[in-house]
Amino acid sequence: MPQLHRLPDPAPASADERLPTSWTSAMPQATERMPRTAADRIAWLVALAVLIFMAVFGLQAMRWSLAGGWQWLWMLVGLPFFGIFSVLSVLAVVTRLRERRRVRVALENMSLERGEGFRAGEPLELRLRAAVPAAQEGERTVAPERISMRLMRHRTADAAGECCCEAVASREEARDGRVLYACELRADAGLDAARWSVELHEAPDGSGAPVLTAQLRLLPGR
């Protein structure tokens, strides 16, 4: 009769375990030009044409005032018209050229699949499922292109982790409309440790704080 082996109880979560459900990249955010529809462009061109017309009218009124006599009264109209509408025309062009929106790299509703547990020398499949958060006004939100997944070895229960395997997972579109990052990690057979964990970092930098840190359930050797 085959002998049954009792699985060890899951190790209690350590202080460094961090499983947030949302994350925003700490790297400098990129910016891009605001997309505009044809109707938006036409409306802006019409408004700019009106501003330029009023500025030109003000300039012409000042020229009429140079004729002398009662026509100097045109200066009272031309000077403020030219000054105000020429400034507004320049501001409209400069604002349009400088108008940009932020591209925020972020995830929400994150869930990490770690399988049943981990054995040294055997592959460990990791899957991170997440959604892209809704964009706020003046921004666009995207998921990171790649996530770096690291297998960390802790020689003692409280020791800092040593990376013994790293893989980079590219972004995939899941069937439920979420994004998926999947990869396989493996530690060399015979490696011993008090506990094991995984860290997920934003690639390619990966030097900042991890996106999340999770403990692994150790399984007995075969």
Structural class: alpha+beta
What is the overall shape? rod-shaped
Mean of residue pLDDT?
82
Q: Give the tally of β-strands.
A: 11
Estimate what percentage of residues fall within beta strands: 25-35%
Uncertain segments are 1-13
Tally of helical runs: 2
Largest sheet: 7 strands, mixed
What's the Cα radius of gyration?
31 Å
The amount of helix comes to 10-25%
Our measurement of the CA-to-CA distance between the termini, rounded to an integer number of angstroms, reads 17 Å
Order of helices and strands: EEHHEEEEEEEEE
Molecular structure report:
It is a single chain. By secondary structure, the protein is α+β, with helices and mostly antiparallel strands. Helices cover 24% and strands 32% of the residues. It is built from 2 helices and 11 strands, in the order E-E-H-H-E-E-E-E-E-E-E-E-E. It has helices at residues 38-65, 74-98; strands spanning 23-24, 30-33, 100-113, 124-131, 139-142, 146-154, 162-170, 172-173, 179-185, 195-202, 212-215. The strands form 2 sheets. Strands 1, 2, 3, 4, 5, 8 and 9 form a 7-stranded mixed sheet that branches. Helix 1 (38-65) packs antiparallel against helix 2. The longest helix is centred in the first third of the chain and has 28 residues, at 38-65. The two termini are 17 Å apart. Residues 1-13 have low confidence and may be disordered.
